[in-house]
Amino acid sequence: MLTSIAEIIDRTRADGVPIWQVVLTEEVEDTEQPEAAILERLAERLATMRSAVERGLSSDAPSVSGLLGGGARRFESWRQGEASIVGPFVGRVIARAQATMEVNARMGTIVATPTAGSSGILPAVLFSAADELGFSEDELVRGLLTAAGVGQVIVARASVSGAAGGCQAETGSAAAMAAAALTELRGGDPESASHSVAFTLQGMLGLVCDPIAGLVEVPCLTRNVSGAVQAVAGSELALAGLHFPIPADEVIDVMGEIGNQLDEKYRETARGGLAATPTGQRLAASVQWEGPGFENTNAARARDLAREAGLAPDE
Question: Is the model's pLDDT at 297 over the cut of 60?
């Protein structure tokens, strides 16, 4: 398992290969599977990610809780009407980050990258970049490998769990993964990819996990949007030749330290932050906690959290 960004860069230098190849080689050694099998599996994951984006952009269906529904489709229609000032690329990123998260909130099939609560970031960045720059499916699969390498390091040094380290650990990690993938896809060298990780993650340090009603919906969806845009910004800075003065590994370590020190109410318990506001509690109380969808493991866990916090009726 890869345990540091510095190690990855050293291996790219020693072998004269990009980050994605280092990660693929490591995966072959760890799983004892041939490269072709690993690449095929990643291509399947990529197809699942694309399907989630497409379903999210085409549906107005509400989430299981009723807190979300149709936002991605409405935003996509609005931005194409030339009302948006952010430009086509960032507009696509925003819409696609929402789309995957809405599918997740409807208990649809997504790819946890690295978690369900951060699943909108990587596909938003990758597919928007593919549309903008014409990346092939094979190139996007390599992007997944680069992202996976960064994710491995974060797991080894900190956490990708909101319950363990706050939303910085979920959306922050996903954004860092997406930034590295985008940077390498655009021709950046391994050092630039490392700086993009540092630029991106430092901007998300300290972000708490405070889901309303304990559900991965609000504010999770909009944090995926901001994380995806942060990833693009971090990549742009690195590709422009800017260097973040703190190495990526040290930024990751700091994220882990902050996560360990966060009060429990800011770690996915629905007891603090936005979840504890009067409106947040009123929204939690309005959720219909029984019925189709709540037999799902994640939804059932959210219901239990809400009950523990006094935000849902007891059985």
Answer: no
